[in-house]
Structures
1.
Amino acid sequence: MDNKYSRQIIFNKIGRKGQEKIRKASIAIVGLGALGTVAAEQLTRAGIGKLILIDRDFIEESNLQRQALYNEEDIGKFKAETAAKKLEKINSDVKIDFFVSDLNHKNISKLLFADIILDCTDNFYTRYLINDYCKKSRIKWVYSAAVKGYGNVMAVLPEKACFRCVFNEAESDETCDTAGIINTVSTAIASIAVTQALKLILNEKIEQELIRFDIWDNDITKIKVSKNEKCPVCNGIYEYLQGKKEKGIVIYCGNNNYQFYLKNKNFNEIKNKLKKIGKVKETDFCLFFEDMAIFNDGRVLIKEKSPERAKSLVSKYIGD
Ligand SMILES: [Zn+2]
C-alpha cells in the first residue's frame, strides 16, 4: 500500500496517519458528469476506502468533451455503471458501489450511506434535498457547481450555515446544456471540491466560505457565509426531505430527455404490457422500449420533442 500512495504520504499535510484516515473513509458522489467523474477518479487514485456513485442518466456524445471517465464506445450506457467499471481498473483497493437511480426523498437515506457526500449534480432540487438530509442526519457535504468558465465550491458542516442559508430558492438554473462550459473549469472545480472533502476526512479546519473560481479571468474569491435566521432547514423544517417539493416531471435541459414517475409501479405488469405491443430489451436496471427506459422504481426516461409529447407517449403505452 505504501508505494501506491507514497507521494501523497510524503506530502506533510497528509502523512501516514492521514492516508490511513483516507483508507477508512467513505464518500458518496451524486452525479457522474463533468464534476463527478473527475472527483471520482481523484478519490479512487488517492485510495479512498469506499465510493458510492449515484447517477440517473445515460452517456451522450456531448458529454465526452468534459466527462473524464467515458469514451466514444460508452455512448448510450449508464454513467454510474460505466464509471464504476473504469474506476475498478484504476485502483482495486477501493470498494465501489453504484446506483443507476434518481436521488429522491424516498431513497436518499438508503443511497447516501457515507461519511461525506459530494454534490456533483447540476440542479438545485437535488442540492436542497441533499442539504435537508445532511442537516438532519448531521453529515458533512461539499457543494460544487460549474458552468461557462466559472464555478462554486462550499463545504457544508452540520452545525454551521447550510446551503439554503446561502442560496435562496428560485435561483436561476443555468446549466452546461443551456449556457455551455469549458472542460478546464469543471476539472478545477472538482479538484477544489475533492481537496475540501479530503480536509474534512483529515479533520482539518474548514472556513465557512463560498469559494468562487473563474478560470477564464483567473479570479478566485472567498465569500464568508453565515447562518440565516430565517432558513427553514436550520429551523428544523425539511420540505425537500418530506417530499413536499418533488416535481412530477423533470426536464433534462438541452437534450430533449424527460423524466416521469409512474403511478403504476408494478414493473412486471408494465413489462408484459409492453411486450405485447413491441420489442422490449431488458437489462439489470431497466426496460428499453422505443425511446423510453423504464426503471423498476417506476421512473421513466424518454427522449421526445416536447414534455407534452413525452407525457402523451408514456400514457399511451404504459398508462399514468
Ligand atoms: Zn440553513
2.
Amino acid sequence: MTDVILYGFQRSTYVNVARLVLLAKGVPFEFHDTETVMRAPGGWTLHPFGRVPVLLHDDFLLWETAAIVTYIDEAFAGPPLQPACARRRAAMRAWIGSVDSYYYPWIVFHLVHERLVFHELGIPADEQAVMRALPEIRRALAVLEQHLAANRSFLADDAPSLADYFMLPSLTALGFTDEGRDMLAQTPAVARWLAAMAALPAVQRLRAMLPPPVPIEHARHWVQIHRPAA
Ligand SMILES: N[C@@H](CCC(=O)N[C@@H](CS)C(=O)NCC(=O)O)C(=O)O
C-alpha cells in the first residue's frame, strides 16, 4: 500500500510527466487508470476541468502538472529536481511554462491528435489544423535546438530538472508522427538531449511499465470539445 495515487489515462502526455517525476524521486505510487470513467456519462469529476493528471497524497488532492511535480519534488525525499541557484530555477520555470504554451498545444493538440489519436479512432485528420501547427512546432524546436546546442546537457541545470521531465513526453509524442520525425532529424542537439533522457533510470522504468498503446476511446469527444480552430 502507498499513500500516493496518480490518476490518469495511460497515453496522456501530462500524466507521463507526473509519472516520470515520481519515478525520478523514487516515490512509490499507485496508478489509477481513468480511461473508463472519462468515457462514461457524467465523466471524470475529480479534476475541476475534467483533465488529468490528478495526484492524491493522503487527503491532499492536487491537479495541474506543474503544481503536482513541484509538490512531489518538495514533499518527498529523493534527489532534488529543482536547481539550487535562483536563476536556474527561474529558467526551469520558464521552460515548464513554455511547454504548456508553445510545445504541448501545437505538438499534441494540433499534430498528434490529428495524426495519431483521431486516426486510430477512424476520424479523418483536420489538415488545416496540422498545417497551421507545423511552423509553430518548427519554431519551438529551433528554440530548443539553439538552447541545447550552446553546450548544455539539460534544459536548466547540469543535471535533469523538472523542466526536462516536463518537456520529454511532448517531444516523444512528436517523434511518433512522420512530420515530427522529419523535424527531429534536423535538430542534432535535441536528438542528443533525447538520447541522454532515454538513458535515465526514471525514463527507462516508465517506458518498461507502459502497456502497448491502444486507441484512446474517450478522445472521440475531443473533436467537439477541444479540436483547435484552424
Ligand atoms: N493544464 C493541465 C493540462 C492537462 C491536460 O490537458 N491533460 C490532458 C491529457 S495530456 C487531458 O486530461 N485530456 C483529457 C480531456 O481533455 O478529455 C495540466 O497541466 O495538468
